[in-house]
Each structure stands twice: as C-alpha cells, then as structure tokens.
Amino acid sequence: MKHSSAISARCALFLIILPAIIPLTAREIKPTDSRLRYDGCFFPKTNGNTIGFPRFSGEAFSSATQNKIFNGNNANTTTGVVMNFFTDSPEIRLFFSLLPGTLRYNEFGIYRNGQFQEIITIPKTESNFIIKITAPDKKSAGYEVVFPSWANPLLERMEIPDGADLFAPAPDKRPVYVAIGDSITHGTGQSTSCKSYPFILSRSMGWNLYNIAVGGSKIAPMLGPMTEDKRIDFITILIGYNDWNSGNTLEAYVADYHTLLDSLRSRHPAAIIFCLTATTSKSAESRTKKTVPLEAYRTAVRDIVKQKIESGDKSIYLIEGPEISTEADLNDQVHFSEDGAKNVSGKLEAQIKQRLIQYR
User: Fold this and answer.
1) Alpha helix (H) ranges present in 38-93?
2) pLDDT per residue over 89-114, tens digit each?
3) Strand 166-167 to strand 82-87: parallel, antiparallel, or no bridges (unpaired)?
4) Which residues of the chain have pLDDT under 50?
5) d(Cα 17, Cα 222) in Å, to the nearest integer?
C-alpha cells in the first residue's frame, strides 16, 4: 500500500512538472502583417512573405551608383530603420537572413515602452539568425527593434506563443526627420544605429528618423526627387568631406548643393532645413586637393545658405560643424566615437532648438 502511494505521488509530481518543460506552441506572424510598422525606410520591399528595407528608390540608387556618388553595398544597409509592434507576448522571436550589402556590425537595439532595454549582437558569420526578446513582466507593451547601421537584414517572420496577442501600434504623429550625409551621419564609429547622432537627436526631439546617409557618399542631388511624395518636416544636411577628400571639385560641390536644396524645397516648402558645415577633422590635407582646405567647403555652405535666405527662404538655417564637435569627439580622423556622437547630438539639439525659437 505504501509502495502504491509512493508511485502515485511520483506520477502526480511528473504530471505537475511536465507542462512546464513542453515548449510553447508558436504562432507565426508574417512580416507584411498590418500590425507591424516599419519606420526609417521610405521604400520597404516585400518578396512573398518576407520584407527588406531599402532606404532609396530604385531610380535614385541606380543614378547614385552609376555616377559613383555612393557605394551600393553601403547604401544597402538599414541604419535608422525601426520595427514597431505592441504585444502581450512573454516572448517574441524574429527570424532574419542577411541580404548582400556591407557588413561591419550586426547589432540590434531593443526598446520597450520607449525605454532602452538591450543591444543584441549577431556574429557576422551567421547569415540566418533569430532574435529573441523576453518580456520582463506579463503586461502588454510597445516594442521597437532598431536595425543595424552596417548590415542588410531581411525579415522572414515573427513568432509568438499561442494565446498571445499582437496589436497595431498607435498611429505615429511624430514629425518626420530626414538626415542626409555621409559616413559621419550613417553611423561610422558607432557599433549600432541607435548610437548614431541622428538617432539620438531624433529620440530627444521626438522626431521620426529617416536616415538616408551613406558611408563614403559625396553630395547626392538625386535624393530630392526621391522624396517626391513623402512627408518631411525637418532635414539636416552634413555632407562634403568626401567631396573635398575624393575628387569632386568645389565648383561641382556648390552646384550640386544648390540643386539638392532647390529640389528639396520645391517638394517640401514647409520643411525646416539645417545645413551643417563640415564637423571637426584631424585631416589637414585632402588626398586629391593639396591646395584646397576643408574650410573652403565650409565657406561654400555658408555662402549657399546665405543666398537662399536672401532669396526669401525663411526655413533654412546654418549650423557650424566645428561649434558642435571637437577632436575629443573623434575615434579616427573624422568619425565620432560613441561618446562623441552623444556629445555632438546634444550640442546639435541645442543649436536646433535655438533656431526653432527664432523660427516661431
């Protein structure tokens, strides 16, 4: 009788423990599900049930690469792209594969209810990978998954346990901010896009970032037409280092800068544009222009902005790059360290707020 009771007790214990070790049945969510929102990407591309995140139109991409304005592999990265969703799931799994493109870092930033949670680093050797997010409690929450600045991930699917719900995030009413630039704005020097100065600035200002900077880029006038039907409220332009350092003449730079501004203004008459002169650099001499200093390109931007203001544009402002950056902010000749990007963002924010007070 005692032996039978012991067996019954062990069976009862087994029945209690067993459900805890059986994996939860997963429910698949397609990346094209309307309850998922993707910010920071003007031209998301679906292929069946997967979704990629091109930041440029096909026409602009072809024009820029054919004219050697920027490198296509660098452009095919996802800096500034953010996936948004709201769920009560205790666990979320996101399945990715890597598409062709420059791969330096494959790091994702995770935010929950607007608060930073963690960085998830994927080894560069993994071309197919899963990001697992575990909720700290059982409450429904909004999530933001910030994509890498120097990788090109393709989202294949999401999985949540059966019984969990996925909800559409609230409509996004934030002002749209477009960052135009080269590697400094793209995020070189920081391991992930949520540590770049445009991302930090956008979070602090409450703006929805679309980062269309490309590492190695020269000024790209074709970016204006690309934004034809897009809503844009604020624009920063920090471009010129590669024009100075890699062969674009000062005269061509000035002409292309005018074309870019005119193209943006004709399509976005109410947008406020901040033109930044080149930030601090340790490089004293261009690789190709031994007698033309970087300061000449700064002077060109000053003159361009002055001309636009004198022509009646009341929504364009000049910000001096050397006033918001120092050599202490750099981790090489020109790019910001992670602390430097944070410092520069704070100083840039102060300058922008000062000008917005003047604007009002």
Assistant:
1) 58-66, 72-75
2) 999 999 999 998 899 999 999 999 99
3) antiparallel
4) 1-23
5) 62
Q: H or E segment at 15?
A: helix 2-21
Q: Mind giving me the DSSP string for 320-359?
A: -HHHH--GGGBSSSS-B-HHHHHHHHHHHHHHHHHHHHHH
CA atoms within a 13 Å half-sphere pointing along the CA-CB vector of 3: 0
Provide the token pair at 36: 């998922």
Distance CA 257, CA 300 (A): 9
Handedness of CA 333, 339, 343, 349 (dihedral sign): positive
The Cα 38–Cα 82 span in angstroms is 6
Domains of the chain: 28-167 (2.60.120.260), 176-359 (3.40.50.1110)
pTM of the model: 0.91
pLDDT at 288: 72
pLDDT for the residue 12: 38
Q: Quick one: tokens of 107?
A: 């790091």
Of the candidates 61, 319, 78, the residue with the CA atom closest to the CA atom of residue 187: 78
Q: Which residues pair with 134 in a beta bridge?
A: 91
Q: Of 97, 60, 103, which is closest to residue 79 (Cα–Cα)?
A: 103
In whole angstroms, give the CA distance from residue 229 to residue 341. 31
> What amino acid is encoded at 275 in this protein?
C
Which residue has 């190709």 as its token pair?
A: 288
- Stated as kind and residue range, the H or E segment containing 241 is helix 241-245
Strand-strand pairing, 272-276 and 234-238: parallel
pLDDT of residue 248: 84
Predicted pLDDT of residue 24: 53
Q: What is the DSSP letter of 193?
A: G
Neighbouring C-alpha atoms within 13 Å toward the C-beta of 115 = 5
Asked if 248 and 239 touch (Cβ cutoff 8 Å), the reply is no
How many Cα neighbours within 13 Å face the side chain of 325?
Answer: 29
Classify 134 as helix, strand or coil. strand
* Termini Cα distance of the chain: 88
Q: Are 84 and 33 in contact (CB under 8 A)?
A: no
Please enumerate in sequence order all residues whose Cβ is within 8 A of that of 69, keeping only pairs 6 or more positions apart, or say none. Answer: 63, 217, 218, 219, 220, 222
